[in-house]
Amino acid sequence: TEISNTAPLAAGEAYTMKQSCVIGNPLLWDLKSPNLYKVLSTVYYGNKAVDTYESTFGIRSIEFDRDKGLLVNGNKVLIKGVNLHHDLGPLGAAAFERGIARRLEGLKKLGCNGIRLSHNPHDKFILEWCDRNGMLVMDEAFDKWEDQFFGEGNNFEKHWQASLKAFIKRDRNHPSVFLWSVGNETEQQRKIYAQFGVPQLKKMVEFVHQFEPSRKVTCGLHPS
User: What stretches of the chain show up as alpha helix (H) in DSSP?
Assistant: First the structure.
């Protein structure tokens, strides 16, 4: 499928281009058959290609049903998952792709079909691997809603929107991501924070859905 549009631009001008097309009888992405598609976007100046960008994506539906549970393309899926932090054990916090792949390959052999990436943005290689190999991802943006997340002296309230926007825009085309999480062990759920916790979560859910409305949003609550 190929589509094209022309936009008159002056020097230094910014322009947002929106395009849409229909893919007939697509091969769906799921855990057993993780079919992927690619979009190649090319900008021409006259007849000269001046920029290109490749985007990988998958076509699938995700639904949470109160009676049937999680449905992927209408089929019930029981998630057998684990929680992963960003480090690779004795290898440390560097994102070695072979180390990441080895861990995920081992989990897949054990029967794991889902992972929660806690509790910050992980290396994009993990999402790419899960896209290619059919593993579901709960993608989590933040740890606690406190200044410690961005470092002492960096107020959480001043930084969470810019950080969350970048996180969602980076990861939203990955079909493996079936659920967003915007927090972990948020102590604000406790009674003393009652006037902050729930309103803050509602604010974050609404914010996420401005940039990616198709997925649900959750939060890892503090053990109580």
Answer: 97-109, 124-133, 156-171, 194-211
The per-residue pLDDT for range 167-214, each reduced to its tens digit, is 999 999 999 999 999 999 888 777 555 566 788 899 999 999 999 999
Do residues 191 and 156 make contact, with C-beta atoms less than 8 angstroms apart?
no
The pTM is what? 0.92
Our answer to whether residue 185 is catalytic in this structure is yes
Among 157, 223, 147, 148, residue whose Cα is nearest residue 190: 223
Of the chain, the end-to-end C-alpha distance in Å amounts to 52
Using CB atoms within 10 Å of the CB of residue 81, give its burial: 0 to 12 exposed, 13 to 18 middle, 19+ buried. middle
Which uninterrupted H or E stretch holds 216?
strand 216-221
Catalytic residue among 105, 146, 152, 185, which?
A: 185
Encode pLDDT of 1-42 as tens digits: 889 988 888 888 988 888 898 999 999 999 999 999 999 999
Classified as helix, coil or strand, 202 is helix
